[in-house]
Amino acid sequence: MSPANTGSGAGTTLSAPAAVRTAGGAVLLDGKMVAARVRAAVAARAAAFAARHGRRPGLAVVQVGHDAASGVYVRNKRKSSLEAGIESFAHDLPADTGEAQILALVHALNHDQRVDGILVQLPLPAGVDTHRVMDAVDPAKDVDGFHPVNTGLLAQKRPRLRPCTPFGVIRLAQEYGIALVGLRATVVGASNIVGRPMALELLLARATVTVCHTGTRDLRAEVERAELLVAAVGRAGFIPGDWIRPGAAVFDVGINRTASGKLVGDVEYARAAERAGWITPVPGGLGPMTIAMLLSNAVDAACLRMGTRA
Ligand code: NAD
């Protein structure tokens, strides 16, 4: 497979963005640019929703404590919400907030008619049962798509609110005309929030999916035969560029900070870009796509709740 030949599958080809190539030759999957397109479409839908219902779609963002990295994400999410015409309700709780208080807030937000989406920023402080908190979110307001009901619906091929990062990978692939049907796709990482739902999304798109994790015997062999690779491990340069199959589509979800303070992905980028057909940069790939899909989910949740389309 190569950018000139998007594979034998009959995947959806949307209006592909102009192909910009990396120094290595691969087409750059420009998440920042596609995310801007998605956000513009979300803003139009949010405006239509507001005109119809007399209020903007509402997104509550709950943060407990002051994890520096989460703080940046949360601020970005709030800023992007407002820019897209989505009302943002900020709930910043001190780090020593107990589980009962967090649950009480989630219950209140579940019943708040101005709130269509609830996002609880992870990680929660030690001692708080993350599953209990996430399970308490009304599945209809679960804009992260992490609730077991939404994961279950995705597993059953009837997705409703879809996990933002995996959904962002699919959207980026579609925008660049990467045909997913029949593709040999490998996901490295099997977490509940990225790897597993990613595998379900790729299966839904009718790729042939392999999932690798700490129990995988020969990771190199699995990566080498991948026509599409998603890396979601959380270790800088964990996948050597030489492992990338020539012409493969590489989606690097990892966000890692090096000792010098630079943000890098899980894939050794420079060498991988010489072999891949397509590759996402870090930063500027799945990070902006994740936020864009979150906003898209917020408007979807608002419309689903009101029983309308926008
Ligand atoms: P996680 O720690 O929950 O999961 C990591 C996964 O990697 C696990 O399933 C584990 O089995 C697998 N793994 C670890 N070592 C391995 C090995 N040696 N071989 C094979 N598999 C191995 O992490 P996560 O929450 O899924 O996040 C992964 C990365 O993605 C992190 O860098 C995180 O910051 C990033 N992330 C980015 C976005 C985004 O918006 N771009 C969103 C979520 C997560």
Question: Briefly, what is this?
Answer:
The chain is an alpha/beta fold and 310 residues long.
Written overview of the protein:
By secondary structure, the protein is an alpha/beta fold. Among the domains are: 55-137, Leucine Dehydrogenase, chain A, domain 1 (Rossmann fold); 162-288, NAD(P)-binding Rossmann-like Domain (Rossmann fold). Helices cover 40% and strands 14% of the residues. It contains ten helices and eleven strands. The chain has helices at residues 31-53, 68-83, 99-111, 130-136, 148-155, 164-175, 195-204, 219-224, 269-275, 286-306; strands at 27-28, 58-64, 87-93, 117-120, 184-188, 208-212, 228-231, 249-252, 256-257, 263-264, 278-279. The strands form three sheets. It has a six-stranded parallel β-sheet with strand order 1-11-8-7-5-6, sandwiched between helices. The chain has a three-stranded parallel β-sheet with strand order 3-2-4, sandwiched between helices. α2 (68-83) crosses α10 (286-306) and α6 crosses α10 (286-306). It starts with 26 loop residues before the first strand and ends with a helix. The site of nicotinamide-adenine-dinucleotide (NAD) has 23 residues, from α10.
Which keywords apply here?
Rossmann fold, 3-stranded parallel β-sheet, 310 residues, single chain, alpha/beta, binds nicotinamide-adenine-dinucleotide, 10 helices, 40% helix, 6-stranded parallel β-sheet
Average pLDDT, rounded to a whole number, is: 93
Q: What is the correct CATH architecture of the domain at 162-288?
A: 3-Layer(aba) Sandwich
What is the distance, rounded to the nearest whole angstrom, between the alpha carbons of the first and last residues?
Answer: 37 Å
**Number of DSSP strand runs:** 11
Q: What is the structural class? A: alpha/beta
Distinct ligands, ions and cofactors found in the model: nicotinamide-adenine-dinucleotide
Shape: globular
Low-confidence stretches: 4-14
Q: What sequence of helices (H) and strands (E) makes up the elements?
A: EHEHEHEHHHEHEHEEEEHEH
Query: What would the CATH topology of the domain at 162-288 be?
Result: Rossmann fold
Which CATH C-level class of the domain at 162-288 is it? Alpha Beta
Q: Rg to the nearest angstrom?
A: 19 Å
Count the helices. How many?
Answer: 10
How much strand content do the residues show?
A: 5-15%
